[in-house]
Amino acid sequence: MNRSMMRLRNVFFVALFLLLSCSMCFADGTLYQYSTIDSLLLGNYDGELTVAGLLEHGDVGLGTFNGLDGEMVLVDGIVYRINKRGEAETVTSASRTPFAVAARFKTDSILKIDNVTSLEDLNRKIDSALGSENIFYVVRIDGEFGSVRARSVPPQKKPYPPLVDVVKEQGVFKFSKIKGSLIGVRCPAYVAGIGVDGFHWHFITEDRKSGGHVLDCSFANLPAKVGAYTNFLLQLPETSDFLGADLQKDKKNELKKVEKNPGSS
Ligand code: ZN
Questions:
Q1: Cα(21) to centroid of ligand 1, in Å?
Q2: Among 74, 29, 30, which residue's Cα sits nearest to residue 49?
Q3: Which pTM value belongs to this model?
Q4: Rounded to the nearest whole angstrom, what is the distance from the C-alpha of residue 44 to the centroid of ligand 1?
Q5: pLDDT value, residue 20
Q6: Domains of the chain: total
Q7: Ligand 1 mean position to 97 CA, how many Å?
Q8: What is the pLDDT, as a whole number, of residue 16?
Q9: 210 belongs to a structural domain
Q10: I need a surface site. Which of 15, 35, 73, 231 has the fewest CB within 10 A?
Q11: Which residues crowd ion ligand 1, with CB under 5 Å?
């Protein structure tokens, strides 16, 4: 091999290295969030952000509505409200939210998931396949699920009780052999207090008629599309309730009860 060929070979290896390292980095994508999870836990259930405003930031996501009137699922650019009976309905673009997350969905990787026996099992399996736990992810799983257990919350009247009290009255819905979409958002542990650290899943059936905040699920052989996001855009409410709220207390334990709600099995 002469010198020029060696130089060419070295250039090739450098190019290959750059290509490989580039495919491992997460180029773009913004996860948008309105308000903080601790503000919602506190009982700040009225925000200024409209559904139209949320849709400017993405076509996939989750959250809730003013007055805590149901669970929000944003899928394929359409916002659905899951009411306290588990029924999904579309909402007007003027509807408002006190807490929501949205992103433009992108598929950076597809994970083949063989068998999932519980939500914890699903979270563990996705976690073990992620490149890093320190960035944000949106995950979408479409197909037929063996089971999904979901909940929704009833609308609240002022003075609003904290979320941990509201979930005691939640409706829980069990679906078996159900076709639909799981929409998951995964935030790094270091955003605790701002976002839901770890996974947060909402579900909507394929016919878009029911769903909810996911408490448990099981399925076999479904692909999980994963989008990685390195930009996090947090928009804070300017309501007097938010501006005057005492957000100093750690609410990790309250969040655990709200997210997993061990009382309803
Ligand atoms: Zn939720």
A1: 35
A2: 74
A3: 0.88
A4: 15
A5: 39
A6: 1
A7: 13
A8: 42
A9: yes
A10: 15
A11: 213
